[in-house]
Write a structure and sequence with these properties.
Strand content: 35-45%
CATH class of the largest domain: Alpha Beta
Order of helices and strands: EHHEEEEEEHEEEEEEHEEH
Distance between the termini: 65 Å
CATH topology of the largest domain: Pseudouridine synthase
Oligomer: single chain
CATH superfamily of the largest domain: Pseudouridine synthase
Number of strands: 15
Radius of gyration: 21 Å
Shape: globular
Helix content: 10-25%
Largest sheet: 10 strands, mixed
Number of domains: 2
Length: 259
């Protein structure tokens, strides 16, 4: 019997099929002592198939990520260059690892991109809530007046989403805070408020409006050492409880560049 190898690896190593295909393509899949690049294998040979990649030992103090905790919600700080969720079993520590290992009764309610830092919330499972968030970003160009946008996002493409000419019932509000000149280019610090978001929404919106985020290598052309997007504040509303607000401990450091 012939086995579909990506599906076999997906089940064995808790990967998505897409991730398994990438590991196969990148030469991490071995048959006995040699790399194996084929997507099919005879059932008799699967016992000799393995992924030749070392898992990282996760040693950390969870308190360095937890900002605030109460009965129904935990607010955590995600540094830049850290994944929110594990993409493969071989990744470095993620915020989801912290939650699942130390607070299993809670679950993350949102995600932040790898280079984005700031507040991220985990809410107690089966608890009803609503959430709004406030971001800060540095964008290329001079913005002099507040803007709002509610266009739909087409996220069918996994790498780059697209803003389309249809409206949703959720508005995103953009407010300019200050503009400075950086290497001859106007750079505006903006505040973004939204209640609901899809993948890359803020990044795609800013580019669509003509003000790409500094350091965004997908939607812009203004290189920097990181993506200059930061989740500053998270508001959680529970049905039987007042609003709970948490602010990022690092927002003042975030806004210090481009003065």
């Amino acid at each position: 019997m012939i086995i579909d190898l990506p599906k076999f690896l997906s089940a064995k190593y808790n990967l998505s099929v897409r991730q398994a295909k990438k590991m196969l393509k990148d030469g991490y899949v071995y048959y006995k002592d040699s790399p194996y690049f084929y997507k099919k294998i005879d059932e008799k040979g699967v016992d000799n198939i393995y992924i030749n990649k070392t898992m990282h030992e996760l040693t950390y103090n969870p308190e360095q990520y937890v900002i605030q905790k109460n009965e129904n919600v935990i607010f955590l700080y995600k540094p830049p260059f850290m994944h929110t969720e594990r993409l493969t079993p071989f990744d470095q520590l993620t915020i989801d690892d912290v939650v699942k290992s130390h607070y299993p009764e809670y679950a993350l309610i949102s995600r932040l991109d790898f280079e984005t830092d700031g507040i991220i919330a985990a809410v107690k499972k089966n608890v009803t809530f609503q959430s709004t968030k406030q971001y800060l970003a540095f964008v290329a160009g001079k913005i002099t007046a507040p803007m709002e946008i509610s266009n739909k996002i087409d996220a069918e493409n996994r790498k780059k989403v697209k803003v389309i000419n249809k409206q949703t019932g959720y508005k995103t509000y953009i407010t300019p805070l200050r503009t400075n000149i950086y290497k001859g280019t106007p750079v505006t610090l903006i505040e973004i408020k939204l209640a609901k978001a899809t993948r890359h929404q803020i990044r795609a919106y800013c580019s669509y409006l003509g003000y790409p985020i500094i350091g965004d290598n997908i939607y812009g052309n203004y290189p920097y050492k990181r993506l200059m997007l930061h989740c500053k504040t998270n508001h959680i509303f529970f049905s039987q409880q007042k609003e709970i607000i948490c602010h990022s401990p690092n927002w003042e450091n975030f806004i210090s560049p481009f003065k």
